[in-house]
Design a protein that fits this description.
One of its GO terms (biological process) is response to reactive oxygen species. Keywords: Disulfide bond, FAD, Flavoprotein, NAD, NADP, Oxidoreductase, Redox-active center. Belongs to the class-II pyridine nucleotide-disulfide oxidoreductase family. Disulfide bonds join 134-137. With 310 residues, the chain is of the alpha/beta class. It has two domains: 2-114 and 240-305, FAD/NAD(P)-binding domain (3-Layer(bba) Sandwich), CATH 3.50.50; 117-236, 3-Layer(bba) Sandwich (FAD/NAD(P)-binding domain), CATH 3.50.50.60. 22% of the residues lie in helices and 29% in strands. The chain contains six helices and 19 strands. The strands form five sheets. Strands 1, 2, 5, 6, 7, 8 and 19 form a seven-stranded mixed beta sheet that branches. Strands 10-17-11-12-13 form a five-stranded parallel beta sheet, covered by helices on one side. Strands 14-15-16 form a three-stranded antiparallel beta sheet, with no helix packed on it. Strand 11, helix 4 (154-164) and strand 12 form a beta-alpha-beta unit. The longest helix is centred in the last third of the chain and has 20 residues, at 286-305. The structure holds flavin-adenine dinucleotide. Flavin-adenine dinucleotide binds next to helix 1, strand 2, strand 9 and helix 6.
Length: 310
Amino acid sequence: AFDVLVVGGGPAGAAAAIYAARKGIRTGIAAERFGGQVLDTMAIENFISVQHTEGPKLVAQLESHVKDYDVDIMNLQRAEKLIPAKTEGGLHEVVLANGASLKARTVILSTGARWRQLGVPGEDAYRNKGVAYCPHCDGPLYKGKRVAVIGGGNSGVEAAIDLAGIVAHVTLIEYDSQLRADAVLQRKLASLPNVRIITSALTTEVLGDGEKVTGLAYKDRNSDELHQVELEGIFVQIGLVPNTEWLKDSVTLSRHGEVEVDHRGETSQRGIFAAGDCTTVPYKQIVIAMGEGSKAALSAFDYMIRLPMG
Ligand code: FAD
């Protein structure tokens, strides 16, 4: 059995594995796809102390850093079920899709999240070429340019306010007949001179020139008329979905499906910790996921050394 079993191999999981292994305890990491969302990222300019890097390069560095330690890396393994220990200090069990079962004294859940996609033509083709999902990450790349934000919930309106301070012009596109964000955010948005709000609009296509985004097409849901907006960037803000479907029977999740953790990263089950984008901790970012993963590993170690011997 492992002392610490990390499930998920993104920045949170990699940090957790390194911190655990450095304590000299038996550490394993099982991941469906080592690297996580970072693998899908091109430019990264907010990984503090590294001015510029790229997703695949950072993943290679994460992997080689983990491999410096005695960590059992189980890549391409999807966890399907978590069975918490029946008694304090007992073994937790993680069942994998291939039928195998891993046992561990403590578990760190770091299965991350995925951005909900529009599912329209052009979205896949122009991802990272104008189609973006993270305003904190990619906002500055659009300095002085025209962008759209798709989604009028809190995250969409926050993104539009944020981007309006950086880019030349923001078009906010909402499917519903009204925005769903908090009133205070809507008031702030309405006060900005370089923002246009379009409601009752169904985005139908991401337009591009073969190299990069040049606009988007939407249908006015009242008139059924098709319109186009010329722009350089599209921020899709229709929801971040945590990869926690497999955990709903074992730990407490928020109404958004995020694993609830306390300030030490512990879940509702003793000895089971969580970190990164799959948790209730706000702001889904690489440096934050790494910090939280490190914290969860230290908490797991702290928990272990207090267990009765035996
Ligand atoms: P993830 O990176 O999502 O990793 C989750 C891991 O869990 C993966 O290994 C996955 O395969 C695995 N997993 C999932 N389900 C299971 C399962 N059931 N069993 C086993 N393993 C499982 N952040 C920044 O700070 N700067 C940026 O510039 C930036 N740009 C971004 C660009 C894009 C396109 C995207 C999508 C995200 C970007 N982010 C950026 C956000 C950043 O990537 C995330 O905040 C960060 O990766 C979260 O780390 P994590 O370890 O919590 O989760």
